[in-house]
TrEMBL record:
Residues 1-31 form the signal peptide. This is Beta/gamma crystallin. Keywords: Signal.
Length: 213
């Protein structure tokens, strides 16, 4: 269960300002994706709608494995450049770096480890073209540190996923905190290991940014 309003902003604002800019181009192109939250699919959820269903949270998951699973299932089109905001279809990618804020460009989606996957829909499903954001660190080969006191990267969600995330799962020893406003501001969740439905805690379609540790 995720606690609501359990943290308050503590990050230096100045350090984050530069990272708050999102490209309007990709977001605009994305707007036609017609995001839909579909509450009527719980009973039929299966591996066919979640290519990562057989993986336990905290399991090892490389970006290469994500690519293989998505492509083999015909689940979406890879974005050619990094960043959730550049996603061309259901799946988008955000490369984050230890100690830095923002989805980084210049990294391809064949290196590194996945730290978290966020879903527009609840229960990790991708039906109705539900959007999926794959957050990874291109430099990681081991995973996150066991402590949560260190900032292992974060970013704002792009417009297409802003106030839309409904479930989340973490990998490689990482945890995620969701923040209600961009720049890790206002109210944040406790550290989330895995949450298949953010609605009971009041965090459904609320998050605008995230941090990893
Ligand atoms: Ca949603
Ligand atoms: Ca950590």
């Amino acid at each position: 269960m995720v606690g609501r309003f359990t943290r308050t902003s503590a990050r230096p604002v100045a350090a984050l300002i530069a990272a708050l800019v999102l490209s309007a181009g990709p977001a605009a192109a994305f707007a036609a994706a017609a995001p839909v939250d579909s509450p009527a699919v719980t009973a039929s959820l299966s591996a066919s709608t979640d290519p990562f269903a057989d993986l336990a949270a905290d399991g090892s998951l490389t970006v290469k494995e994500v690519r293989a699973r998505i492509e083999s299932g015909g689940m979406g089109t890879m974005a050619k450049s990094g960043g959730i905001g550049t996603m061309a279809n259901t799946y988008g990618y955000c490369a984050i770096l230890d100690g830095q804020f923002g989805c980084k460009s210049g990294y391809n989606t064949s290196d590194g480890l996945v730290v978290a996957i966020v879903y527009e829909n609840r229960w990790f499903n991708t039906q109705n073209d539900g959007l999926v954001g794959v957050i990874y660190n291109p430099n990681y080969s081991v995973g996150c540190t066991s402590r949560t006191s260190d900032f292992e990267g974060g970013a704002n969600f792009p417009a297409v996923l802003d106030d839309k995330v409904s479930s989340v799962r973490t990998y490689n020893g990482c945890d995620i905190t969701l923040w209600s406003r961009s720049g890790l501001q206002f109210e944040g969740t406790s550290w989330i290991h895995e949450e298949d439905d953010l609605n009971p805690s009041g965090w459904n379609n609320v998050a605008s940014s995230f941090e990893i540790s």
